[in-house]
Amino acid sequence: MLQARQLTKHFTDKKRGTVRAVDGVDLECKAGEIFGLLGLNGAGKTTTLRLLATILRADSGSVMIDGVDAQVHPEKVRSKIGFLTGSTGLYLRLTPREILAYFGQLAGLDNATIARRSDDLIARLGMKEFADSRVDKLSSGQKQRTSIARTLIHDPPLLILDEPTIGLDVVTSRAIVEFIREARTRGKCVLLSTHIMHEAAKLCDRIAILHAGRVRRVGTLADFRTQYGHDDLDDIFVAAIEGNGGMAQ
Ligand SMILES: Nc1ncnc2c1ncn2[C@@H]1O[C@H](COP(=O)(O)OP(=O)(O)OP(=O)(O)O)[C@@H](O)[C@H]1O
Ligand SMILES: [Mg+2]
Predict the structure, then answer these.
(1) Is the separation of the CB atoms in 25 and 17 below 8 Å?
(2) Tell me: domain 1-80+156-229, CATH 3.40.50.300, correct?
(3) HSE of 166, CA atoms in CB hemisphere, 13 A
């Protein structure tokens, strides 16, 4: 579903000079797979996901989505992507249901499809009690559920989710995690970023450890446990970013 090759994005910052935010990243993610990008603050997760979602232009490298070169035909691949990021905008004066209708119309859906999909997302994301309240009256967890629903209204095969459970309470996080699992069952390709180790360990089929814009390691948790001799993903992660243990890349 998604392949990135040697993806690179450097920023020029007056104070810091050149920031190698993404520095030659290779990634592959299949339909029916949950793939996690794990990294410290500033590791390059959001930048990588923005490049993959064609929100940002890469300096070099390529992204193929469902067999289409995403940089050559961004308009062709956008309908296949649901992208959630911290800055996903919500209109404060609208209700979640109105937001879903608005983004459904932007995606070219007819009213019957919008109504059916909205009802389905509202039910599956546990949004019934606040679906008709204005967004400016909602809690941050309720807003996050609304953002996720808005990301998915066009039923894309590829979900790119930047820290989908950030700032959520344990019950809301679990609901989102359950929702992501369900998406996998329905054959979606899910690429997500997180720095919550236990969540990545529970949820992801494969994990890429990203550090300073580079992929240090890709594998399943079982692979990592064998390579590093640690059980905990925390310990594996620290060893991977410090370059200790494991087999040579
Ligand atoms: N528009 C920009 N201009 C300059 N530097 C940027 C820009 N966007 C990101 N960066 C820099 O690129 C690096 C990677 O940032 P990015 O947001 O991708 O990290 P992240 O892994 O998502 O971190 P976090 O866990 O804090 O969300 C950081 O050093 C950041 O300061
Ligand atoms: Mg980020």
Answers:
(1) no
(2) yes
(3) 15
pTM: 0.93
Kindly give the number of the ligand 1 atom that is closest to the alpha carbon of 45: 21
Give the tens place of pLDDT for each residue, 31-58. Answer: 999 999 999 999 999 999 999 999 999 9
Instruction: Please provide the DSSP assignment of 102-121 as one string.
Output: HHHHHTT--HHHHHHHHHHH
What residue's CA is closest to ligand 1, atom 31?
A: 42
Domain positions in the chain: 1-80+156-229, 87-155
Residue whose CB lies within 8 A of the most ligand 1 atoms, among 7, 22, 38, 46, for a mutation test: 46
Nearest CA to ligand 1 atom 16: 44
Q: Find the ligand nearest to 22 CA.
A: 1
pLDDT in tens, 144-183: 999 999 999 999 999 999 999 987 888 888 888 998 999 9
Q: Which residues crowd ion ligand 2, with CB under 5 Å?
A: 45-46
